[in-house]
């Protein structure tokens, strides 16, 4: 039995298990024959055969056809008609069926019709649905079933393993938007932890209210009890039938069949609701509720004729009610000029227009004017769109301390707001089935606010502390002073809220004060109004003006210190200290006094000029101690430790409120010593600590340090004191002006920008070992002030999307224009496998090979701009037609719709390579990109690239921008032209002189890194000498320090780029290539520069254990490519060595992650073992998927010869070897790993495995610091 295919993420989220493979869908269309079949017992009938699957899919079927049946998914809508009877005869060609289906549905919104050209009768979809696989399928299922499949089903054809293309059905991008809206609404309605879903709370306004299961929203402002009207609220269909009594005399319809009065009860209902009615109309009649006003007039006589449209009736009804000056929800938000509102849009939907046609103008007008209408929103929520607002009815019908009105059921009568804060015994609270919380209070309890003696006698004996705490919680609002009642309205801060680090990154502005110039404290004075403004900013309150206090000396009536007044006094002190804080004194004391950068640059690298994390923490803590009163800091040691953790975060790590509050207690804050509820104290402390981190610590870092990552520091964050960073960048800007950039005046910049669609780019600098590297942000929009006002320009990369799509099309159509360019390891794998099979020529031995590796010196910055534009004129020679598509991406946590452009016939390669599943939906819209426009944008981008550096404009005079989406393609076309005109002719000339063939060498170039392999030493020497001379016409020279050879040469020093680990390897673009066997290993030397911990991004919030488990698997992905495990390239020993090395690096990252995570949480050894075993299983699955999905020539498919037991043994061995070096932390885990290893090592006696675990063969990895 074949394994059931997993439904893609996008389709599963939208259709659940109703989406099936094409084979399963076709079999469901054709039930087994129970009577005599039309086929007359022919063997080619899918109904009569016993093995129906084998009829569709046979042993000799081509692989494309198998892929179509097994990986193409189909969704059958519920309203689709039944499929026709199976008939295996096919009278039409597949292309004729597709064309007829499209032409029959051209007026519909079916995806199959998008982009269809009536003249040529062709489109992308037509080409996709008329392949040889579809033609073969039609021969087996017949014309009728094929026509039904194309017309009524949604079809998603596979592009590759994780991407599909929708070719039929309603476009799912609209469904995706609806899905996202529903998801966001559900997210906003999630119940609190510990509360059942059916008792979930609606919003923050009604947190203390009893909300029934069916609640009504009156314009989103008030949620009230759904049983206010009892049985007077009926569905819309029931209300309409009650307003139209059956005809007792001759009706005006004169016997017309379309009359709702003259029919019987069943016929009258079928007149309103018919079988072919849309689902939205059915939902309106059945789920919309109406309450007829008692004082409204009698409904008019039924007349089915309609003289006005629905929108005209609604507009006239609203304007008539406005003239009468009566209160009605239908008038809320009505714009007299635009004659529109939210309610009007809701009442003019297609469902209401259809209802108008069936009930007539008069009845519709009566319904809108004299009835209360509640249309369904989602689930069991309704939206009032007509009638008197029910929140007004609620307030008038339920005054405090009175009996419920007759319209409200007694058991749903709510206690008043005063008695809700009383300590209520558990026996007096019960939950009803309709999710209403009903509170029974005795009259004495409601008046006095205390428990009766009988209730107290039933309580169990409690300790003194427990009684004291319960007594504190019994204080009602009236027991506290009016100013302290503000804490009751304080909103709770979710502990998962993140501290926003973005404001402190890459900020150059300097200020003389300790905080940024625009900080709120700098605009306040240390008085009552200033403290009140700061109070509102901290606690997120809009109006904080309590009534006159009933106490004095800052003590409440219950002898408790007044938190409100005490805090205001401390805030005044904070403002005064912040204004007078001695910034320079603290900075000089805690940050090492830097010498001038000119003196130190000769002795220190740029990273050494940065401040250590300890220095930054010391400075921040000194400022906090200086400006924040001690009463508001709590435990100094814990708070400082949390601040240190925040400063030590890596660039992409997040810091939640839970981490800010870690181990902080309310009892350690003297200001919270009063008799307040624990929840109030905790909420206060969360708000206060969140404000300290987000509004004090982050602005302090922003104002005093330039914070950035480094070129070689991976994700590590570096803090530079502002003056040091200014000196460092000033020298770099001077050198850049001399080499690459020209200073441009503002007027010249405006003249350049005004003639094009995109603007300029802002530049920031990233430190490297020597100097800094400029990074231009070409993905953000820009604004520039002109005489007529400020004008905004689109991002550079956004405007260049059309040009990028055109260049990708040229890359696919004419790859020879790019020379030997490769863009991924997949292409390297393909070329290397082809070369090996060619030079081996059927033999198992490889002849001696000569390898040369070279790197272009400053490839992007040295490109000759004029030469590049000349090269691109031969690349872009025609106009191009671009089609717009949507890429719908789904993963376990994310779901998004991304619009982008692609070319008509070759749009598939433009799908972005994402690990998540995605579906491509063609929009049927196209634009024409002319050759002149493309060349104009390219010239503006290359020749007139404007950069904003330190508030001045610069124009790049040599090279191309590195942050552009075109950079890699332009570089590849440029050097590809250089190869085709200079390098390849030279190599062919040398080969002819030596009587060699072109098949005796292989040349690959990954952007600017060359790899040359040949069986001729003279050819390799010729290649080397030609590169050494350089290509002056292209301003291209090699970096002589990065030449790599596997043979002796007098011109190049022998030690250049050569490594020795038992065999000689050459490094090239992240690979180790064996100089003798051309076996391939991964290059791990990139991890030798710093600590391995700097490469991680640890997640401390939202279930860190599950995220840790996922990250360990992610660490295996980069070094799990088919080129490392293909038996056609590597020997069994090297394949197992690659597996072992991948696990070694993963185990080292495992240890680093555990160390970082231990500061916030820890797990037992069994959980760690489960994570490790899961990574072993994942590695084996990933290897098989990567190898078998690798696309190489059919005769050269990769081969994987590794057992699952070998992978598990190699992984366990790697974990044991790494963790043994840290055994003090992992004693129990190591014991479990060794037991697991013993259970799997019984049959492990292979020499290949022994070679793999030999530490000498992994000497580079053991030099990594972890």
From TrEMBL:
SMART domains the record matches: Telomerase_RBD
Top-rank lineage group of the source organism: Eukaryota
Compositional bias segments (type: Polar residues): 203-213
Segments of this protein annotated with the region Disordered: 185-213, 442-471
One GO CC term on file: telomerase catalytic core complex
Subcellular location: Nucleus; Chromosome, Telomere
Biased composition annotated in UniProt, kind: Basic and acidic residues: 455-466
Reactions mediated catalytically: DNA(n) + a 2'-deoxyribonucleoside 5'-triphosphate = DNA(n+1) + diphosphate
Enzyme Commission number, as recorded: 2.7.7.49
Keyword vocabulary terms for this entry: Chromosome, Magnesium, Metal-binding, Nucleotidyltransferase, Nucleus, RNA-directed DNA polymerase, Telomere, Transferase
GO BP annotation list: telomere maintenance via telomerase
GO molecular function: metal ion binding; telomerase activity; telomerase RNA binding; telomeric DNA binding
PROSITE patterns: RT_POL (PS50878)
Annotated Reverse transcriptase domain residues: 747-1073
Transmembrane segments: none
Protein task: Telomerase is a ribonucleoprotein enzyme essential for the replication of chromosome termini in most eukaryotes. It elongates telomeres. It is a reverse transcriptase that adds simple sequence repeats to chromosome ends by copying a template sequence within the RNA component of the enzyme.
UniProt cross-references to PANTHER family, sorted A to Z: TELOMERASE REVERSE TRANSCRIPTASE
Family: Belongs to the reverse transcriptase family. Telomerase subfamily.
Name used for this protein in its record: Telomerase reverse transcriptase
């Amino acid at each position: 039995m074949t394994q059931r295919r997993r439904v893609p993420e996008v389709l599963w989220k939208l259709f659940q298990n109703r989406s099936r493979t094409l084979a399963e869908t076709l079999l469901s269309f054709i039930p087994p024959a129970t009577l005599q079949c039309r086929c007359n017992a022919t063997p080619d009938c899918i109904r009569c055969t016993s093995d129906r699957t084998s009829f569709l899919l046979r042993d000799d079927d081509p692989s494309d056809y198998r892929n179509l049946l097994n990986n193409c998914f189909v969704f059958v809508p519920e309203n689709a008609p039944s499929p026709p009877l199976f008939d295996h005869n096919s009278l039409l060609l597949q292309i004729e069926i597709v064309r007829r289906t499209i032409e029959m549905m051209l007026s519909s919104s079916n995806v199959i019709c998008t982009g269809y050209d009536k003249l040529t009768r062709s489109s992308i979809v037509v080409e996709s649905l008329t392949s040889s696989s579809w033609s073969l399928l039609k021969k087996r299922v017949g014309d009728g079933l094929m026509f039904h499949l194309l017309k009524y089903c949604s079809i998603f054809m596979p592009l590759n393993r994780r991407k599909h293309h929708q070719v039929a059905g309603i476009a799912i991008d609209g469904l995706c938007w609806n899905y996202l809206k529903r998801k966001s609404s559900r997210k906003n309605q999630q119940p609190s932890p510990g509360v059942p879903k059916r008792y979930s709370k609606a919003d923050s306004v009604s947190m203390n209210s009893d909300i029934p299961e069916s609640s009504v929203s009156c314009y989103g402002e008030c949620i009230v009890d759904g049983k206010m009207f009892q049985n007077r609220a009926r569905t819309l269909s029931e209300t309409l039938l009650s307003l139209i009594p059956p005809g007792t005399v001759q009706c005006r319809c004169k016997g017309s069949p379309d009359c709702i009065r003259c029919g019987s009860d069943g016929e009258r209902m079928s007149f309103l609701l018919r079988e072919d009615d849309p689902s939205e109309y059915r939902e309106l009649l059945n789920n919309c509720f109406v309450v007829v006003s008692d004082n409204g007039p009698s409904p008019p006589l039924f007349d089915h004729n309609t003289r006005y449209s629905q929108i005209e009736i609604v507009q006239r009804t609203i304007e008539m009610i406005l003239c009468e000056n009566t209160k009605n929800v239908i008038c809320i938000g009505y714009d007299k000029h635009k004659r529109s509102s939210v309610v009007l849009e809701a009442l003019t939907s297609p469902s209401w227009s259809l209802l108008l046609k069936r009930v007539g103008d008069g009845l519709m007008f009566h319904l809108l004017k004299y009835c209360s209408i509640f249309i369904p929103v989602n689930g069991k929520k309704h939206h009032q769109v007509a009638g008197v607002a029910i929140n007004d009815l609620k307030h008038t019908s339920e005054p405090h301390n009175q009996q419920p009105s007759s319209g409200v059921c007694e058991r749903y009568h709510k206690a008043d707001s005063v008695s809700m804060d009383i300590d209520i015994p558990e026996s007096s609270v019960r939950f009803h089935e309709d999710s209403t919380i009903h509170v029974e209070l005795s009259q004495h309890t409601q008046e006095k606010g205390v428990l009766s003696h009988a209730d107290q006698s039933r309580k169990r004996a409690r300790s003194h502390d427990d009684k004291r705490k319960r007594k504190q919680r019994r204080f009602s609002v009236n027991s506290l002073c009016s100013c302290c009642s503000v804490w009751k309205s304080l909103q709770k801060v979710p502990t998962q809220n993140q501290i926003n680090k973005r404001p402190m990154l890459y900020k150059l502005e300097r200020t003389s004060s300790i905080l940024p110039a625009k900080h709120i404290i700098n605009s306040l004075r240390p008085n009552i109004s200033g403290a009140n403004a700061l109070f509102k900013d901290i606690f997120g309150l809009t109006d904080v003006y309590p009534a006159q206090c009933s106490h004095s000396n800052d003590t409440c009536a219950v002898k408790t210190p007044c938190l409100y007044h005490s805090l205001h006094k401390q805030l005044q002190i904070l403002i005064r200290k912040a204004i007078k804080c001695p910034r320079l004194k603290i900075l000089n004391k805690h940050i090492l006094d830097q010498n001038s950068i000119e003196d130190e640059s000769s002795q220190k690298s740029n990273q050494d000029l940065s401040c250590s994390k300890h220095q930054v923490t010391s400075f921040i803590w000194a400022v906090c101690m200086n400006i924040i009163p001690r009463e508001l800091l709590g435990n100094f040691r814990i708070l400082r430790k949390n601040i240190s953790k925040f400063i030590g975060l890596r660039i992409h790590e997040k810091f939640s409120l839970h981490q800010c509050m870690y181990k902080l207690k309310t009892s350690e804050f003297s200001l919270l010593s009063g008799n307040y509820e624990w929840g109030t104290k905790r909420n206060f402390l969360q708000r206060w600590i969140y404000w300290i981190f987000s509004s004090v610590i982050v602005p302090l870092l922003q104002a005093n340090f330039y914070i950035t990552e480094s070129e070689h520091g991976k994700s590590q964050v570096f803090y530079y004191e502002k003056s040091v960073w200014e000196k460092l960048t000033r020298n770099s800007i001077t050198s850049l002006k001399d080499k690459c950039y020209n200073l441009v005046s503002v007027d010249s910049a405006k003249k350049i920008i005004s003639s094009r669609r995109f603007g300029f780019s802002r530049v920031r600098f990233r430190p490297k070992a020597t100097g800094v590297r400029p990074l231009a942000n070409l993905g953000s929009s820009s604004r520039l002030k002109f005489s007529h006002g400020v004008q905004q320009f689109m991002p550079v990369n956004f405007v260049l999307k059309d040009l990028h799509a055109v260049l990708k099309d040229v890359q696919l159509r004419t790859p020879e224009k790019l020379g030997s360019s490769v863009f991924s390891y997949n292409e390297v794998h393909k070329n290397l496998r082809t070369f090996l099979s060619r030079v081996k020529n059927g033999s198992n031995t490889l002849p001696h090979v000569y390898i040369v590796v070279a790197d272009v010196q400053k490839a992007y910055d040295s490109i000759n701009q004029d030469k590049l534009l000349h090269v691109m004129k031969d690349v872009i020679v025609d106009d191009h037609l671009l089609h717009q598509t949507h890429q719908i991406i789904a993963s376990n946590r994310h779901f998004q719709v991304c619009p982008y452009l692609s070319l008509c016939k070759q749009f598939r390669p433009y799908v972005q390579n994402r690990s998540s599943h995605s579906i491509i939906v063609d929009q049927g819209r196209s634009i024409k990109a002319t050759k002149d426009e493309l060349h104009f944008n390219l010239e503006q981008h290359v020749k007139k690239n404007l950069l904003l550096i330190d508030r001045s404009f610069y124009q790049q005079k040599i090279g191309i921008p590195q942050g552009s989406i075109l950079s890699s393609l332009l570089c590849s076309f440029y050097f590809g032209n250089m190869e085709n005109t200079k390098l390849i002719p030279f190599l062919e000339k040398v080969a002819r002189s030596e009587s060699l063939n072109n098949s005796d060498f292989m040349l690959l170039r990954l952007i600017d890194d060359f790899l040359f392999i040949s069986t001729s030493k003279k050819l390799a020497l010729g290649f080397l000498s030609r590169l050494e001379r350089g290509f002056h016409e292209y301003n291209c020279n090699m970096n002589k320090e990065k030449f790599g050879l596997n043979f002796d040469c007098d011109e190049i020093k022998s030690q250049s780029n050569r490594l020795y680990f038992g065999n000689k390897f050459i490094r090239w673009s992240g690979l180790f290539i064996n100089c003798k066997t051309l076996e391939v290993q991964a290059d791990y030397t990139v991890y030798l520069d710093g600590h391995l911990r700097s490469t991680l991004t640890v997640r401390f919030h939202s279930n860190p254990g599950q995220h840790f488990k996922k990250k360990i698997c992610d660490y295996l992905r980069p070094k799990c490519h088919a080129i490392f495990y293909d038996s056609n390239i590597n020997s069994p020993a090297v394949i197992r060595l690659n597996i072992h090395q991948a696990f070694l690096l993963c185990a080292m990252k495992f240890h680093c992650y555990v160390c970082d995570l231990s500061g916030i949480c820890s797990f037992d050894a069994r959980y760690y073992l489960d994570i490790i075993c899961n990574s072993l299983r994942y590695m084996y699955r990933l290897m098989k998927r990567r190898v078998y999905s690798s696309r190489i020539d059919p005769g050269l498919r990769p081969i994987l010869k590794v057992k699952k037991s070998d992978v598990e043994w190699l992984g366990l061995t790697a974990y044991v070897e790494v963790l043994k070096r840290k055994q003090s932390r992992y004693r129990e885990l190591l014991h479990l790993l060794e037991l697991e290893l013993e259970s799997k090592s019984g049959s492990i006696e292979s020499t290949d495995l022994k070679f793999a675990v030999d530490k000498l063969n992994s000497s580079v990895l053991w030099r990594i610091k972890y």
